[in-house]
Amino acid sequence: MHTLLLNNEDVDENAQMSRVIDAVRGAFTAYERDNATMPAKSYIDLPEYNGDFRSMPAYLDVRTEDTAEETGWDAAGIKWVNVHTDNPTDHDLPTVMGTMIYSDAETAFPLAVMDGTALTRKRTGAAAAVATDHLAVADATSLGIVGAGVQSYTQLEAIAEVRDIEEVVVSDLDEGRVERFVDAFEDRFDVRAGSVGEAGHCDVLSTVTPVEDPIVGPDDVGEHTHVNAMGADAAGKHELSDDLLVDATIVIDDHEQCTHSGEINVPYAAGVLGDDDIYGEVGEIVVGTRPGRAGDDGVSGVTVFDSTGLAIQDVAAARVVYEHADDNDNGYPFDLLGLAA
Length: 341
Prior knowledge:
- With 341 residues, this protein is α/β, with parallel strands linked by helices.
- The chain folds into 2 domains: 3-120 and 311-334, ornithine cyclodeaminase, domain 1, CATH 3.30.1780.10; 135-306, NAD(P)-binding Rossmann-like Domain (Rossmann fold).
- Helix content is 35%, strand content 24%.
- It contains 12 helices and 16 strands.
- It has helices at 8-14, 17-32, 87-91, 116-135, 150-162, 175-185, 196-200, 242-247, 255-261, 265-269, 282-287, 311-327, and strands at residues 3-6, 36-37, 42-46, 51-61, 74-84, 98-103, 110-115, 142-146, 167-171, 190-193, 204-207, 226-229, 249-252, 278-281, 303-306, 332-334.
- Strand 8 (142-146), helix 5 and strand 9 form a beta-alpha-beta unit.
- The radius of gyration is 20 Å and the shape is globular.
């Protein structure tokens, strides 16, 4: 029995976005129904290297009593990821690198070791798509993106799977990033550069920046804009102004992570926002115990999805990558444990 080694290109090729979105939706469902185990993300701070390591293990089971064996599944794995801010300038390495170990839940055999960086981009886009599907207006055709880094690409790719996106407005202080983004998508969408306000007045807005001083205020969004706040992943990060958040319907992915390191962490710590200001978790909306935007009792106005990124999403996406790679003889099989005949 062999372990599959899957590099960045392998992960990108085998992580078909439509399937990743379905898998992440299943992960939110399992988590909401208490069919997932996800210990808190653990950190190893390395101030001497201006960086840290983070470990993210999880197990999820999307099987139910009425689920056919061939469609139900469970999955387990762990992502080991870093943030070393000096890497690009001092070592010619990315700031963030990740490695995912995907295991057979029944036997614990390591089925795959794969690049976790591409995996993170895919599942982050998929999480935004799931939230958008439930919280954006049904006839949304425009998408604004603030921040034209690597995460912005999968935001568009994923959200276009759940809404008929035609117009895209991208805003970034780095003109080169904007030009590269426009070049990448101009054959598929009406995509152009614009201000934060122009991006924010689209039907859907995704913010993917690492800022600590808010850059999107209440005047920068439309009356019914759905905002995917994807950039905050550490204490102190804060993309949306307090005034915007106070007036919006806030949906989170996980209470502990969001109040510690998500978009709401700063106003929550300051007492500007409390638990009563949080509408619910995205899993509640996915399973139908709390209304999304659809229906007579659905939410209205500006909605915000505070996404910190969960280990269950990584595991769900890793399963998609492994299954597709295994079926199509992709990747490099090797005898990691020395058990092959």
